[in-house]
Specification:
single chain, 428 residues, Heat Shock Protein 90, 3 domains, five-stranded antiparallel β-sheet, five-stranded mixed β-sheet, EC 2.7.13.3, ATP-binding
Length: 428
Amino acid sequence: MRRHITLLVASTVVLVLVAFLVPLALLVKDVARTRTLAAANVRAQALAPVVAAGDRGTVEVALQQTASSGYPMTVLWPDGKFSGAPADRDAGVRLAERGRSLTVDTPGGREILVAVLGGRGGTAVIRAFVTDRQMSAGVGRAWAILAGLAAGLLAVSVLVADRLARSLVRRITKLAALAKGISTGDLDARIEPGGPLEIRDVTVGLNELAGQIDALLSREREQAADLSHRLRTPLTVLRLEAETLRDPAEAGRIGEQVDVLERTVTELINTTRRPVRAEAPCTDATAVVAERVRFWSVLADEQDRRMDMRIPSGPLLVRVRAEDLSACLDALLGNVFAHTPEGSAMGVALEARSGAVYLTVDDAGPGFPGRHLLRRGVSTASSTGLGLDIVRRTAEASHGSLQLGESPAGGARVMVRFGVPPRDAEPS
């Protein structure tokens, strides 16, 4: 933008300079020509009274005095003789001998012919010759001055335009940084209004927008946190009910599930209260997936499900928090247990390829009835329909995607592609 503004001002100034300087340059040339011819004509007219007197000796003396003027002067007498610089009796001279003063263009210059009437023997002609070089004397220097003035004006205009453009670009760059900060969740970002009125209005609007978004999100976070906090009461009741079971093993297992659910609720409260910012990536997706598979394998054994797991031996870095990755896998495995018959096999795979990390969950159930399951809040079973949408949004937040398909066993396949964070990302 800065370069475009500078070029626009430079082109405008060039057009204005051309529109003014070209006519001015032609006028300077015409004025120099007219001034030179007028000076030569004045000298020729001043010699006319002396020529009219007819004293050729006096005329010779007068011609010698005017020789320093730089204009060759000649007096052509009616008897065919001449005084002064040699000159031919051309057509212009013959026309002047008829009593008419005139100016004639000739090769290399211009003749000024003054007819002197009343002399003895006829009409004498005074001839002054002005060369082209004399008529253009000083024009080159004047043009050089005009060109230098134009170059100076153009340089000053470009410099001023560049300064103004740089000021505008600097302010717009700050606006872009503010907008980018808001888009990445930095709702505390503000800049001081300044610059032209339009840019100042945009700055004020963006500052107010950030404040309004922050207020709305704060209100939503508090409402979600309050809702999550209300779940603690039934969890406490459930824990007390579990402690009354006679079978210690069963009581312990239910108590462990209540602990997991309570940790999930706590994490939900913390997540809703956490400001919207770029989250630190998970440095070991392999460990997270392995831990969640071990957790769900207990239920799989109870339902006589074969649960396969294919994960790499080393850690994988993904562009989501470990808690979000765990929640995604829990949502996918929970769907398998909820929507497939007991005894249906399932598998979990984690692999890195093509600059991304892929998490795949397969099952041997009835499969998906349609791709509309990706719509938020839509479900074909008695559920909220939010599980796959949560997985999709988590994947897209990491610059990844969610893909539904058919597993090799004929059931459902959910493939989640997670983006890999840049090298300078902070570990979680």
